[in-house]
Amino acid sequence: MGGMSQPSTDRTRVRRIPDRARYDKSDVLAILREGLVAHVALVDPERGPVVLPMVYGVDEVHLYLHGSPASRLVRQLMSGADCCVEVTLLDELVIARSVFHHSMNYRSAMVHGQPENLEDHAAKNAALKVIVEHVVPGQWGLARVPSPAELDQTAVVRLPLTEAVAKVRTGDPVDEPEDTGLPIWAGRLLRETRWSAPIDAEDLGPGLSAPEHLRSYGR
Ligand SMILES: Cc1cc2nc3c(=O)[nH]c(=O)nc-3n(C[C@H](O)[C@H](O)[C@H](O)COP(=O)(O)OP(=O)(O)OC[C@H]3O[C@@H](n4cnc5c(N)ncnc54)[C@H](O)[C@@H]3O)c2cc1C
Fold first, then answer.
1. Residue 3 domain-assigned?
2. pTM of the model
3. 127 part of a folded domain
4. What are the two backbone dihedrals, phi and then psi, of residue 26, each rounded to the nearest 5 degrees?
5. What CATH number is attached to the domain comprising 66?
């Protein structure tokens, strides 16, 4: 993938409503940068398909995931199992006159591929920084960095952004022409999210207050 308007592989070709496809790397990256939770799909050889919600981070080249090596599915990611990672940004509810044409306006990104396990402590640390800074910009410089023992207890993998695609729906409901005259409201509800002011931990020591990057958190 890279500044292209065609799918990089056959499995990233959007077949259903293809005019909603976005193959440009910049479109995929914009969605991945805005999202916070990824849905990671794997086929567990013993139990069948599984979807794991996971935190992630992204740079220009890779998507990073981490977890406990005690998790069977994380170990599957560490072994390079084929997986699919999806991030959804829900923008609007689309309210139509007919039930059939209700919809959602969204931006979603999908990455397919085989993750690479990071074993080297420096590489793991750099990837964990990407994840932390993705979720809470400014926090890596404040929190205690992982110890070597903590790095050993943390699996970190990265998935190349080479096989990725985005799909985007915008706009009004698309009702049947004969329904537009019905006395039923149609339109959109825009979704807005906000975060609260920081809530102190119960065991917070005296004289400490939340840093500016958390007081002004607007992710
Ligand atoms: C918030 C939300 C709600 C949705 N609700 C529904 C629903 O209720 N019912 C429904 O049928 N569909 C829904 N969709 C759309 C759904 O994600 C699929 O795009 C659609 O079902 C077509 O599936 P398909 O297997 O035929 O796709 P195909 O077009 O055959 O998929 C081919 C390839 O296109 C890419 N692709 C497909 N869908 C997406 C996507 N959403 N984002 C990024 N890449 C994609 C993947 O690489 C996939 O391998 C929703 C999407 C979002 C984001």
1. no
2. 0.94
3. yes
4. -65, -35
5. 2.30.110.10
- Asked if residue 189 belongs to a domain, the reply is yes
Domain of 208, in residue numbers: 10-215
Any atom of ligand 1 within 6 Å of the Cβ of 15: yes
What is the distance in A from the centroid of ligand 1 to the CA of 3?
Answer: 22
The pLDDT tens digits along the chain (219 residues) read 444 479 999 999 999 999 999 999 999 999 999 999 999 999 998 999 999 999 999 999 999 999 999 998 999 999 999 999 999 999 999 999 999 999 999 999 999 999 999 999 999 999 999 999 999 999 999 999 999 999 999 999 999 999 999 999 999 999 999 999 999 999 999 999 999 999 999 999 999 999 999 999 998
N- to C-terminal Cα separation, the chain:
26
Q: Can you tell me whether residue 111 is helix, strand or coil?
A: strand
Phi then psi for residue 172, to 5 deg, are -75, 170
Question: How many A from CA of 146 to the centre of ligand 1?
Answer: 38
**74 found inside a domain:** yes
Question: Which atom of ligand 1 is the closest one to the Cα of 108?
Answer: 42
Give 167's Cβ-side CA count (13 Å radius). Answer: 14
For residue 112, the ligand 1 atom closest to its alpha carbon is 47
Number of domains in the chain: 1
